[in-house]
Amino acid sequence: MTESTAHTDLWPAPTATGAVDATVTVPGSKSVTNRALVLAALAAEPGWVRRPLRSRDTVLMADALRALGVGIEETVSSSSSPAAGPDAAGEAWRVIPAGLHGPATVDVGNAGTVMRFLPPVAALADGPVRFDGDPRSHERPLHGVIDALRALGARIDDNDRGALPLTVHGAGALEGGPVEVDASSSSQFISALLLSGPRFNQGVEVRHTGPVLPSLPHIRMTVDMLRQAGAQVDTPESGGEPNVWRVSPSALLGRDLVVEPDLSNAAPFLAAALVTGGRVTVPDWPERTTQPGDSLREIFTAMGGSCELTEAGLTFTGTGRITGIDADLHEVGELTPVIAAVAALADSESVLRGIAHLRLHETDRLAALAKEINELGGDVTETEDGLRIRPRPLHGGVFHTYEDHRLATAAAVLGLAVPGVEVENVATTAKTLPDFPELWTGMLGSVAGATVAGS
Ligand SMILES: O=C(O)C1=C[C@@H](OP(=O)(O)O)[C@@H](O)[C@H](O)C1
Ligand SMILES: C=C(OP(=O)(O)O)C(=O)O
Question: Is the pTM of this model over 0.90?
């Protein structure tokens, strides 16, 4: 969290004066889209990524792969693929793999997936690839990827910083093999090495050596998508050693993949049902998924709502009463900001644990949530590994967002119940959810008497 941001634009968060009753179509998953792009770029044949998320993080990924020589064409497709399903017509990315070339320059913005997933890809290029990004990207942990790639045979020039900016001197191939990584600061270190692993001469065997590994569902997502692309992956869950993942060298298939809705970005909309005692349906909620956002069904039910998965999607219904929770969120850390906002509106205390690594996300999320909710009259304290939230009556005010999309959506949730919340730089939601203000007001359009604070 840096103290000051240059943004002066304030978005008056709409206050709900009634129960929401809406269906909200949530755009595609950032995590699935960016994995799909990387795997398609490394494949031996062209593939499709349908219903991709088009947001800052995914456009940065596509542009970076293009800079390395991969063809990515935007199309409006009417799919004839059975895999795509009857209603999968619509926008798609056609990915045409090619030899990976340097010199190239990659702007990672502040996308963890781009800054961590692409250095291993760059090691396969035939020349130098320079990586840089937003000022915050220089502070986010990358040492796990850098050290592991060096151990696997890559040459990287990072001025001994263990962080961005850096240059990967691609040599056209990487030896690969066994490597140890402390991924306690980001699961993305492991995902990064596994995703490119099939293309290393010896494949890769990644052993996590540090304390608790966060975001395991995201590693499962990596493994799942690798397997669907034809890779052979051994995991702790498939009978392998604890904390060891092994990917064999192989060609990857070009897939026809339909991206699921981003279930973590469904969080503010489901929260609206909880906060207003209303009902929100998110269509196309997958029956089976590796996305951490699927845990919202359990977490928000524990906080006082109920949910039902039908053909129409996931319908979440609130009662207007919110109960605090004591929850370990280390597997689903990216859900924390919205859960914290809901907890601040509950009728009992919450403790959110297991999320110390959030201090290294888009901003220091623990510090930012505590400061901003407290500035609205709340009582949030940082613990060693999370937050303690004691609900108090809140008042309006400016909610600073620190270039963090999830801080902005959390603020919108507070604004439903607290008149006069003004969200600084709501446009920062474009990192993963570009149409957030429109989706939000569209959802509230279904509330009789919805008002916009400050208007
Ligand atoms: O692999 C991914 O797509 C992600 C993994 C998680 O990262 P961390 O393990 O760094 O928390 C998550 O928070 C991030 O939003 C997306
Ligand atoms: C931590 C997040 O993003 P990133 O992929 O940049 O790590 C997030 O989206 O909550």
Answer: yes
